Amino acid sequence: GQQVMQIPQYQHVQEGEDFTTYCNSSTTLSNIQWYKQRPGGHPVFLIQLVKSGEVKKQKRLTFQFGEAKKNSSLHITATQTTDVGTYFCICTNAGGTSYGKLTFGQGTILTVHP
Amino acid sequence: DVKVTQSSRYLVKRTGEKVFLECVQDMDHENMFWYRQDPGLGLRLIYFSYDVKMKEKGDIPEGYSVSREKKERFSLILESASTNQTSMYLCASSHNFIEQYFGPGTRLTVT
Questions:
Q1: How many interchain CB pairs under 8 A, A with B?
Q2: Rounded distance, CA B37 to CA B21, Å?
Q3: Mean pLDDT in each 10-residue stretch from start to end of chain A (114 residues)?
Q4: A43 — contact with chain B (CB < 8 Å)?
């Protein structure tokens, strides 16, 4: 079946350093969504990528969707302490039926040292 | 403002009890989801509903059932709670699988 691997599981950075997390699927995706979950909070939607090779930016965050629509990355430039939390992806399979289209990255836990 | 609410933030139940977790959304979304979230495992889908009275099993439905009698409300039922069901339970809703809105979560402890 379709699997999504998210790496790394943990990332510790100094404030000001960059951070990247990756979601890699074994099958072609229809779209991918990225979420952020602050410690003690609930997941909050960041962005959805749909098109092959798509790149979207939100201030210091850059999201990319691979040309083959099997992988995606979230890059944060110059991290701040407010960036701490877990970042994870929700992937929608190309084809399939209803919920069976969804698979989930395990999340990357980001800590930022001031 | 979009809202998904869950009936309890914290819940402590005994083994064997029947447990009801309620979720309500005010966005008229057709899709609603129940997840559990455990450290190192990420989100795991328990059940999903795409319309009133319609439901589909997720990846880990064993030991759970659901009810959706009204569009805005999706209930998760633990028929006989067990200690391995101690977890954070998250409800979400979405329109057309685009952008899921999550509730604040219920941290359930089964003793």
A1: 50
A2: 15
A3: 85 98 94 95 95 97 97 98 97 68 91 96
A4: yes
